[in-house]
Amino acid sequence: MTSVRHPYDTLTGATLLTGALAAQEAGVVPATIRKWVQLGHLRPAGRQGRSHLYRLEDVFAAERATRRRTAPASGAVSAPHG
C-alpha cells in the first residue's frame, strides 16, 4: 500500500489539497470551491502545476461562513398566507 503525499504549506505546515480533494472533504462539488474563491470566501494557498491548492481549515471556514449566510434566521416565523 502506498501513501499519498500532499504538498504542504512551508510556513504553517498545513496540508494543501487540490480543489477536487478540498471539495470532497467539505462535501461539496468542485464548482462550489471555485465559487467561494470568486466570492472572496476562500483564497488559494499555493499552486501545483495549474491546480490551485487550499488549506483544509480555510475550506471549512469558507463552508461555515457560507452556511451562516444562507441559514434562515433562528426563530423566524413566516406570515400566514391567505
Question: What would you note in describing this structure?
Answer:
The chain is α+β, with helices and mostly antiparallel strands and 82 residues long. It contains three helices and three strands. The chain has helices at residues 19-26, 30-39, 56-70; strands at 16-18, 46-48, 51-55. A three-stranded antiparallel β-sheet has the order 1-3-2. Helix 1 packs across helix 2 and helix 1 packs across helix 3. The longest helix has 15 residues, at 56-70. The chain is elongated, with a radius of gyration of 17 Å. The N and C termini lie far apart (64 Å). The mean pLDDT is 82.
Topology:
Elements: E1 16-18, H1 19-26, H2 30-39, E2 46-48, E3 51-55, H3 56-70
Antiparallel strand pairs: 1-3, 2-3
Helix pairs in contact: 1-2, 1-3
